[in-house]
Amino acid sequence: MGDFKLTTIEENEAITNRLLETGAKVGADSWQLRVKNQTPHCKFGEQGVCCRICSMGPCRITPKAPRGICGCDAHGIVGRNFLRFTAGGCAAHSDHGREIAHTLYQARPEGPYKVKDPEKLIRIAKEWNIETEGKDIYDLAHEVAYVALGEYGKIEGYQNFTSRAPEHTRELWKKAEIMPRAVDREIATAMHMTHMGNTSKPEALVRQSFRTGLSDGWGGSMTGTEFSDVLFGTPTPIETEANLGVMVAENVNIVVHGHDPSLSELICEYADDPEMIAYAKSKGAKGITVSGVCCTSNEVAMRRGIPMAGNFLQQENVVLTGACEAIVVDVQCIFPALGPLSKCFHTKFVTTSPICQMPDSDFVRFDAATAGENAKAIVKMAIDNFENRNPDLVYIPDTKQKATVGYSVEAIVKTLDGVTNSQVDETGTTKPLLQCITSGVIRGAVAMVGCNNPKIRPDYLHVELMKKMIANDIVIIASGCSAQAAAKAGLMDKAAKDLCGAGLKRVCELADIPPVLHMGSCVDISRMLMLAAELAKDSGLNISQLPVVGCAPEWMSEKAVSIGNYVVSTGLDTFLGVDPYVSGSDQMCELLTNGVRDWVEAAYTVEKDLDKLGDLMIERIEEKRAALGI
Ligand code: BF8
Ligand code: SF4
Fold first, then answer.
1. Which reaction does it catalyse (predicted)?
2. Is residue 481 within 8 Å of residue 312, measured between CB atoms?
């Protein structure tokens, strides 16, 4: 315990620099080089005042040219861009959720996809008024999956999962006319509204941005999370490791990257198969190591303890180690750069989804019906590639940290039951957690989420903000690349409790948890929604009254904006470290940072300064406590 030390940003940067030297040797490109070519960025784009949705344009707003050719002003252009950004993010998350529902629809007792959490399946079926009595679990799985798939195009009504939100929240949504209908409809409405000659009124564009976001958070993403749990198991705390040092020089290294666990789950399974391990040995390797990047990594880390090689801006680094036999990707957040980069090494870049096809990759079309064979072929391809490694290029840094991951809502509730002297009737609720918060032992919680962005030193804001929060007795729940930043730094090691204030440290000791709880991938931010809803119901408070805020300090993707919109709409103030291209319209800025509070009791704050951002979050949490008199 005494020798516990966080990995610093500087140490990670030194590793990256060492890897970039290898890159230079083989003539590899890297994001660090491309950023130089792309900066300074276009100011019109940054302010959101460039419109190219019709061919009379592109139009750019300046003081001299305050309207586009059609007459649209900056507010309309910024607002439309914001809504289109949201629609892109919602589509990505939700289509991922749809794929998972499809996988469940094809689950069979003989595999490869089985029902691993029948209890959760039955719970969802009951919520959705689907008869469960006397039904074969696979028949039920298919029936529930069919209904879930129908949620994407339902003719009337709202997303089924919104019934999980507290009554008050649903009332707000109805009043604000942002209650999410069919997922596909919200995306189509967003695209329709932003077609040339449609909506240019900021308020209407923000409302649809929120409704589209909500169809993601309380629709598509929740479908992704819940049915991944049904298929692959609901996460429970499990030990793993994080950072590039998890790769093993003597082994065949397979790196899984992307978001959809359907592929990676099977890759992990076959990589564990004695037959495959023997085959790897026959090729001169000692074994097979599967590690992950981005949210696919979070998925398999949470359920199998598969180590995390890194997050978003570390994806090129895994290839630069010279020891990656195959980087196997599914969808989203995958750099097209991996194609040309892998060609500088022996690495096989394997794409698997029709949704994500890239040049310079080996495409193995992954399909639920042939998944077993596909996964086996990919593992074999990686093993066969081991002998093509150039030992002169191999450098795996030995840096890694221990991490305990797997804090689903179910796991948090169960774990925290051990903290307080909770009565028997309080087990299975969030009441023990609420007691910690009410008594002030824990001041509140921050949901830290989102990406890396080259505009910010990778991981810097994530890690520094987390350190500041836990020192102030604010517990962190984390997902996506933020969670991986924490794990790489060591903040998911239980020993990190020593960095906490006295209250949170005591909770960590009693509950045997790290101060930063890994809640999963980005679709798993829906777990955070469920936790907030449960906390509100168990406390009798509204979500917006809870001393809880959201933060995406280094976000970059459209998905992150969709998330931001559903987190704010759910009643949680959300803090961003990167501007969502709205600075070109004061009306849009006003709405997002203030006006929307009238609809949903929460709003955005954008602050690029680390210290201010941290202080603002603490302030907000303390304000909420003061308002409650706790
Ligand atoms: O969905 S945090 S860089 S990996 S978008 Fe992508 Fe951002 Fe990472 Fe997961 Ni989420
Ligand atoms: Fe220009 Fe209007 Fe066309 Fe946009 S919609 S490109 S502002 S003319």
1. CO + 2 oxidized [2Fe-2S]-[ferredoxin] + H2O = 2 reduced [2Fe-2S]-[ferredoxin] + CO2 + 2 H(+)
2. yes
Q: If you take atom 5 of ligand 2, which residue's CA is the nearest one?
A: 196
Whether the CB of 174 sits within 6 Å of ligand 2: no
As a whole number, the mean pLDDT across the chain is 97
Please state the rounded mean pLDDT for residues 568-579.
Answer: 98
Measured between alpha carbons, how far is 247 from 250 in angstroms, rounded to an integer?
9
Taking the centre of ligand 2 as the mean of its atom positions, its distance from the CA of residue 190, in whole angstroms, is 17
Which 3 state secondary structure label does DSSP give 488? helix
| 244-393 and 408-628 in the same fold | yes
Residue spans of the domains in the chain: they are 68-232, 244-393, 408-628
CA of 38 to the centre of ligand 2 (A): 25
pLDDT score for 426: 52
- Residue 54 beta carbon below 6 angstroms from any ligand 2 atom: yes
At 430 the pLDDT is 92
What was the pLDDT predicted at 2? 64
pLDDT digits (tens, 9 = 90+) for 123-144: 999 999 999 999 999 999 999 9
- Give the pLDDT confidence of 96-121 residue by residue, as tens digits: 999 999 999 999 999 999 999 999 99
Structure-token pair, residue 229: 């749990």
Give the fold, CATH level 3, of 68-232. Answer: Substrate Binding Domain Of Dnak; Chain:A; Domain 2 (1.20.1270)
- pLDDT interval class at 368 (50, 70, 90): confident
CB of 72 closer than 6 angstroms to any ligand 2 atom: yes
Q: Identify the pLDDT of residue 424.
A: 47
Instruction: Output the pLDDT for position 428.
Output: 78
Find the mean pLDDT for residues 52-80.
Answer: 98
Whether 53 is in the pocket of ligand 2, judged by its Cβ within 6 Å, is yes
Q: Which CATH number is associated with domain 408-628?
A: 3.40.50.2030
**Taking the CB of residue 291, how many other CB atoms lie within 10 A of it?**
29
Judge whether 48 and 582 are in contact, CB under 8 Å. yes
Q: Would you list the DSSP string of 159-186?
A: -GGGGGS-HHHHHHHHHTT-----HHHH
pLDDT digit string, tens, across residues 257-293:
999 999 999 999 999 999 999 999 999 999 999 999 9
Strand partners, 50: 60
Comparing 127-136, 364-373, 466-475, 532-541, the range with the smallest average pLDDT is 364-373
The answer to whether 499 and 493 are in contact (CB under 8 A) is no
- For ligand 2, whether the C-beta of 196 sits within 6 Å is yes
Q: Which amino acid is at 420?
A: T
56 lines ligand 2 (CB under 6 A): yes
Nearest CA to ligand 1 atom 7: 451
Q: Which atom of ligand 1 is nearest to the CA of 449?
A: 2
Whether 70 is in the pocket of ligand 2, judged by its Cβ within 6 Å, is: yes
425, pLDDT greater than 70 = no
244-393: CATH number: 3.40.50.2030
Alpha helical stretches, state H, 137-260: 137-150, 167-175, 183-193, 202-215, 221-232
